[in-house]
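ok trying this again, last paste got cut off
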Amino acid sequence: MKACGMIVEYNPFHNGHLYHLRQSKQQSNAEVIIAVMSGNFLQRGEPAIIDKWHRAQSALQNGADLVIELPVEWSVQSADYFAEGGLDLLHALGCENLCFGTDQSDEFDYQNLGKLLVTRQAELDKLYQSIDDPKLTYAQKMMQVFQQFDAHIVFSPNQPNHILALSYAQANAKLANPLNLIAIKRIKAGYHDQKLPDFDLSNQENLNIASATAIRNHFFAKQSIKEFIPESSLIDLSSQAVSWADFYPYLKYRILSSSHEQLQQIYQMVDGLEYKLKQVITEVDAFDQLLQAIKSKRYTKTRLQRLLMYVLLNIQHEQIIEQQNQKIIHVLGFSEKGQQYLRQQKKYCPYPIVTRMSKQVANQKNLLIQSDRIYQLANVTIKEQNFGRLPIRSTDFPK
């Protein structure tokens, strides 16, 4: 069976994701669509608005065949680690293609660029180190690096999908059997769009598409978003939605109750940021205020959000390295085709395929258990996230 993979977050699953799923199946001509989906904490240092099981169910209801979890040690990371973690799992499952979204308007050869980046990695690293401007974000530095590296690599302002795609290309080229890369152009809504676009009430075939950012903003502002997301996502949002605000009291407790020395052990705690956190935590009353108080030209909002997530979850450097070396395929759900494909790949997959969390696996993946239990603190309706859970089957819910 021919499989096409995607690396996703679905925060929440919306019509743009439905378009991506349909295009992935059509352009790859795949029989099985596999989604590697971030668990309960996301790449930009945010909690998922809905838990991983509900998001996996929405994916299955809308065309995915197999959903596996990208755990927190890979999901809450910069683009290069995020891409590496997701592609490694797809490669382990024998995927032939990776379909991803891009906001690059011109045709772009990600496949060959990935090969070039890998063969000249030392040159890339040297160029990155030569840019010592603290005012530049990671993305801005990488734009400069790529443009110095090859004048044909062009960027327009605000192209997060294109930058992530370059990370996919580079991580893919390092694999023993690289996947075929298929770029799908974003339509109708940009990644950073804050507002919902106008929609056509008579629109049946063409999907009404808005950015996830706009959908979340309007949802928390108690404004209608029903034209832009499937009904399954709307039901889940109505019963369970969480945000950073729900975790702020626990984050504040962690900072107040930790010494400077203890905060220094947190993953990616650098440049005395532990002192800044201890200094301002008694002066602010909300997460956004804390973020504003520690913001500087040296670090982006996303970089600081990830750091605060590491503080909340008490993630230390050694734990990240240890957990990244403990790889599993944690199955969240499948269709009949997905289950068949999983059985087909089981004898070839280099990592354990986990469909039910055992004590042994939980001891190995302690950060997964730890982070999901903290996620449950946000809302009493969030059920146990690992023990006693079996993969969701597409046959469990009406079509």
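PB: full thing came through this time. Strands lie at 3-8, 32-38, 66-70, 97-102, 180-185, 329-334, 353-354, 392-393.
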